[in-house]
Write a structure and sequence with these properties.
The chain has 335 residues and is of the alpha+beta class. The chain has 3 domains: 6-77; 88-187 and 264-334, Alpha-Beta Plaits (2-Layer Sandwich), CATH 3.30.70.1660; 196-262, Double Stranded RNA Binding Domain (2-Layer Sandwich). 45% of the residues lie in helices and 22% in strands. The chain is built from 9 helices and 11 strands. The strands form 2 sheets. It has an 8-stranded mixed beta sheet, sandwiched between helices. It has a 3-stranded antiparallel beta sheet with strand order 6-7-8, with helices on one face. Strand 4 (157-164) and strand 5 form a beta hairpin. Helix 1 runs antiparallel to helix 2 (53-77) and helix 6 (240-263) crosses helix 7. The longest helix has 41 residues, at 10-50. The chain is globular and about 80 Å long.
Length: 335
């Protein structure tokens, strides 16, 4: 980065800056803990020599904080998949429940964008389909930051909401579903051969807010891959060419993951066999009525502070799933 001309190619430079940030996020916490342990050891010796009870009590409190930092490092060590450090494509799709589910998808979007902001992740909207009456039918974001794919892949699956419906004049309780889908962004690093004859490319005007240029020209792009039925679309840029390039990257990522599924049963379960976006397939339930509780059905981790979670405080759910997955992998290896 200190070399002359480093910023002459901004895109390549930005990738290196992102790599540096990711590496620092791994190394710096370890170095900081090592430094803290050394300082604490020296302070402990002095306090013990002088029989300083107040300092000894302070050190004991600091040790608890140090244990929590070590726990964070342990969790980071579980993000060791080959693609965990990559940026990702992050999608939310409304399921069974009509307007209710579209509103629920919008609530999930708010929850995740709050989480992205709190964790210094950058994100941009690639495509969005609004609901007919409220909320969103689907949305795709590109998310970038340390371990973006590794952490957010823990959220892949169906999310279920139980609440008193704001759209029901009789104030009845409704159950809504939405699915989260996460794919790594390989940023043109993978070689996937795609036959142009297998593609149907449609150009259309972007929907929803987007400025006078975005939604007044046919710049949005939808690509359908006939052999697999995979459909990707992008409408975030006024340039049709850029939208097509982004959509092709998404298609390559999906095709790559499809190939991985054929060889990896766990990925197949995670990406292909989520099932219908409906009852019986949920990974997590968010119950607002008749009581308040959020429970992850994979790990049994649960929280009663529903509002904090819906405001983006989901790190404990991600960490609990990482520990659960690491335990399963270790058990499989031992068997």
């Amino acid at each position: 980065m200190s070399q002359p001309g480093f910023w002459d190619t901004p895109d390549a430079a930005q990738k290196i800056v992102s790599q540096l940030s990711a590496v620092k996020s791994i190394i710096m916490p370890v170095l900081n803990v090592e430094r803290a342990v050394k300082d604490m050891g020296e302070l402990l010796e002095l306090a013990a020599d002088e029989n300083d009870a107040e300092t000894l009590a302070s050190i004991e409190a600091d040790i608890q904080g140090l244990e929590q930092r070590c726990d964070k490092i342990e969790v980071a060590g579980m993000l060791n998949g080959p693609d965990d450090m990559r940026p990702c494509f992050f999608g939310i799709h409304a399921g069974a429940g009509g307007t209710e589910s579209c509103d629920w998808a919008n609530m999930l979007l708010r929850m995740y964008t709050r989480y992205f902001e709190d964790n210094k992740y950058s994100f941009e909207e690639l495509d969005m389909t609004p609901g007919e009456e409220a909320g969103i039918r689907s949305i795709t974001l590109r998310v970038e930051g340390p371990f973006a794919f590794g952490k957010l892949s823990c959220e892949t699956g169906v999310h279920r909401l139980v609440r008193i419906s704001p759209f029901d004049s009789q104030s009845r309780r409704h159950t809504s579903f939405a699915a989260v889908d996460v794919m790594p962004d390989f940023e043109d690093e993978i070689e996937i051969e795609i036959d142009e004859d297998d593609l149907r490319i449609d150009y259309y005007r972007a929907s929803g807010a987007g400025g006078q240029h975005v939604n007044k020209t046919s710049s949005a792009v939808r690509i359908t891959h006939a052999p697999t039925g995979i459909v990707v679309q992008c409408q975030n840029d006024r340039s049709q060419h850029k939208n097509k390039a982004e959509a092709m990257r998404m298609l390559k990522s999906r095709l790559y993951m499809l190939e991985q599924q054929k060889r990896d049963a766990e990925l197949a379960k995670l990406y292909s066999n989520k099932g219908d976006i409906a009852w019986g397939n949920q990974i997590r339930s968010y119950v607002l009525q008749p009581y308040q509780m959020i429970k992850d059905h994979r790990t049994d981790h649960q929280r009663g502070n529903v509002q904090a979670v819906l405001d983006g405080d989901i790190e404990d759910f991600i960490e609990s799933y990482l520990r659960y997955r690491a335990g399963k992998n270790n058990k499989a290896k031992s068997e």
